[in-house]
């Protein structure tokens, strides 16, 4: 399986992890290890900077992964830019997931504010990973604005519904000049495998792992699904047909 190159950095794993909803930091740490993920995102709002007993960041970084702070909880570009700068000062991480969703019910990302934030942060040297709806036109604007990757959703955050935006994701993957990371809505390893078979460069998973009966075992399952899906894509999946095609033609069987 070919490594993923993201803004000049090489990643062996194409499975990225979110860190919300785990029952404990120890469980999260063990799930990260089982997934073999090399890039983990955490919402800046969840980090208690003044609490010396807050072990969230330590639990992530001790697993040896790269930290990708995200701006979840921000309502506009100004707030997201401020949060990204604060994350850089706190953790020294230039890679940031821009996540702006003012809608509290469906948590759908704001395309206009996301584009504004991406333009500013990319000019400041951030490796911007914008979380967006599956909008092919927006993806092209984000590329032009300097996004290092685009992160379209498969379904709304936490719904576990899978690739409900599949037709649009296929267009994005076909047209994109930067890596495409399917983010949000993946609820089963089969969803991740399907995304990789389509040609997605990576997937980001949180709820499906963190809320599973056994998060560590589920992290392992997602790891294997991502590998299988990517290998299938690289091997070249056969085209679909409308009629049957015998694997052992009858004329060959009869010696004709």
TrEMBL record:
GO terms for molecular function: thiazole synthase activity. Its main location: cytoplasm. It holds the Pfam family ThiG. Pathway: Cofactor biosynthesis; thiamine diphosphate biosynthesis. CDD domains: ThiG. Keywords: Cytoplasm, Schiff base, Thiamine biosynthesis, Transferase. The keyword Transmembrane does not apply. Its EC number is 2.8.1.10. One of its GO terms (cellular component) is cytoplasm. GO terms for biological process: thiamine diphosphate biosynthetic process. InterPro entries: Aldolase_TIM (IPR013785), Thiazole_synthase_ThiG (IPR033983), ThiG (IPR008867). It comes from the Bacteria. This is Thiazole synthase. It comes from Porphyromonas gingivicanis. The lineage of its organism: Bacteria, Pseudomonadati, Bacteroidota, Bacteroidia, Bacteroidales.
């Amino acid at each position: 399986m070919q490594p993923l190159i993201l803004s000049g950095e090489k990643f062996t794993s194409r499975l990225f992890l979110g860190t919300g909803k785990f029952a404990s930091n120890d469980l999260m740490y063990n799930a990260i290890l089982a997934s073999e993920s090399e890039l983990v995102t955490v919402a800046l709002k969840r980090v208690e900077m003044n609490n010396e007993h807050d072990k969230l960041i330590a639990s992530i970084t001790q697993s040896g992964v790269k930290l990708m702070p995200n701006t979840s909880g921000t309502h506009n570009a100004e707030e997201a830019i401020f949060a990204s700068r604060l994350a850089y000062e706190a953790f020294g991480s230039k890679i940031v997931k821009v996540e702006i969703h003012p809608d509290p019910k469906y948590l759908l990302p704001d395309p206009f504010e996301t584009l504004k934030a991406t333009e500013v942060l990319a000019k400041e040297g951030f490796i911007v990973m914008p979380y967006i709806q599956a909008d092919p036109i927006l993806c092209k604007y984000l590329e032009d604005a300097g996004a290092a990757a685009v992160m379209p959703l498969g379904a709304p955050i936490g719904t576990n519904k899978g690739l409900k935006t599949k037709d649009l994701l296929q267009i994005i993957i076909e047209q994109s000049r930067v890596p495409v990371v399917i983010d949000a809505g993946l609820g089963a390893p089969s969803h991740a495998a399907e995304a990789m078979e389509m040609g997605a460069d990576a997937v980001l998973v949180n709820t499906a792992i963190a809320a599973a009966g056994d998060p560590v075992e589920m992290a392992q399952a997602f790891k294997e699904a991502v590998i299988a899906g990517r290998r299938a894509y690289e091997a070249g999946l056969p085209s679909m047909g409308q009629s049957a095609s015998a694997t052992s033609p009858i004329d060959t069987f009869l010696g004709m």
